[in-house]
Amino acid sequence: MGNSNVFKRNAGILMAISSLPSPYGIGTLGKDAYEFVDFVRDSNHKYWQVLPVGPTTYGDSPYQPYSAFAGNPYFVDLDMLIEEGLLLKSEVIAVDWGDGIIPVEVSEDDAVNNRYPVNHDGYLGDDRYVSYEKMYNERFNVLRKAYERFKGKCVSAKLTLDKGLPLYKRFDNFVKDNAYWLKDYAMFMSLKEYFNQKAWGEWDRDIKFREPEAMQRYEDELSDDIGFWNFIQYEFYTQWGKLKAYANSNGIEIIGDIPIYMGYDSVDVWANQAEFQLDENLTPVKVAGVPPDAFSDMGQKWGNPLYDWAKMENSDFEWWRMRMANSARLYDIIRIDHFLGIIKYYTIPYEMPDARQGSYEQGPGQKLLDAINESIGDKKIIAEDLGVCMPEVDQILKDNNYPGMKVLEFAFGGDRKNPHLPYNYTNNCVCYGGTHDNETLLGFFNDRNDGELGYAFDYLDTRDKYRMVDMVFRAAYSSVAVLTIFAVQDILKLDNSARMNFPSSFGNNWKWRMQKGQLNWDHLNAMRYLASVFDRERK
Prior knowledge:
Blueprint: E1 10-14, H1 31-42, E2 47-49, H2 78-83, H3 89-92, H4 108-112, H5 132-159, H6 167-177, H7 179-194, H8 205-208, H9 212-221, H10 223-249, E3 253-258, H11 267-271, E4 286-290, E5 300-305, H12 309-314, H13 318-330, E6 333-336, H14 340-343, E7 344-349, E8 359-362, H15 366-375, E9 380-383, H16 391-400, E10 404-407, E11 429-432, H17 441-446, H18 454-460, H19 465-477, E12 483-487, H20 488-491, H21 521-538
Parallel strand pairs: 1-2, 1-12, 2-3, 3-6, 6-9, 10-11, 11-12
Antiparallel strand pairs: 4-5, 4-7, 7-8
Helix pairs in contact: 6-7, 7-10, 13-15
């Protein structure tokens, strides 16, 4: 079992899809994604790590998606839809996307030939940050226009004898092949709209409990909306498939990231009620979180409903098998967030206000990992094993040959035995500068006094805070870690204004975006130089 998860020593770059400098307010699977693949390739790196790509809910966190299978509608590239004849460019540039570009009303001919002014207004937004409010208010209106044209194209395709597989057939095949998750997802999203975005626990009782008669009635009544959500996923998976094929053909593998738990207001909980710890009214009995620690006296109550592991085991972990097989289709390597929860998980009674009254329970452990290993074929796993130190976790990583994680921002507190210090690494680990939950490296060093940084000054052999970022890169790339991964914000040496997430805070996260042209030849050459360590080793 252990030999299938072997990595060749190399490096990658962490870059969220949402952070790409695509036009129209948010990063997408379009031209800028392909250019980023080129940057990774030209810098002699092998991996592009993304954050979870699922459809985000209230709070915009990719770690609380509506679905474990669906793709984020915001990532569907609008320029590609224009090329398909599903949108007009004049429609798209007439919208305020929250990136500070003033919308313009011009003819389609002028729009296509770029005969229109591109002016900025800081009051409308900033291209360094996503405006999720404007995304939510505008994106679906535009995508619905695309869907109406798509339906028209499908009708035309039925009337003409096109060469190859006609459009309507490709779409029908996609819907059929993905019915095991898409049927419930499209229904769920349609019902969310029907019930004014209320959580499914607040829907009418018959549909909340998925009574067959109600399911059929709403399926009939909402058939066009269901078609719309099917269409979005068809476009997402089509665009993702092309991007991944391009990356792989250029020697780049994509590292995906999956949250271990689902949010309560997700299609996965609504459609699989028996496999979660819910009471007779479908309210969570216990929820996920972490106990009090040095960072929080109250611990963290995440609120995710917990799996009923006994019932999941009775079905041979069927939901997990489907989820991991689908993840293996999207990614070359899968990073499992909060991996510890598979071995031992923290449970908090639903009614408790914080995490202090929780307790640990035994997870499914190797039984689930056997199902995961069987489901992903030749794809690989990275275990996010940060947090409480558990010897049984170390053993299970070793048994499955999964690399765990080391984070250099955690390395300089404590003593010389700190496991995050590079000279304490064992070969099978992945070294990160920081994660999406941490400060940027420059922000980390800038925001600490000389006393706190004393050990870092000695270890990295410099007292220049700006130069310390370079020295952290050097320490990581020359370590024995099997993979070395840094966020693009750290390659750009940005301060904490580019931080992705502030845990336990709300409303200002997941927004940072790279600006067009921000990555340049200097960054490319610097990354190429760092990657040369692997070439020297191979020789």
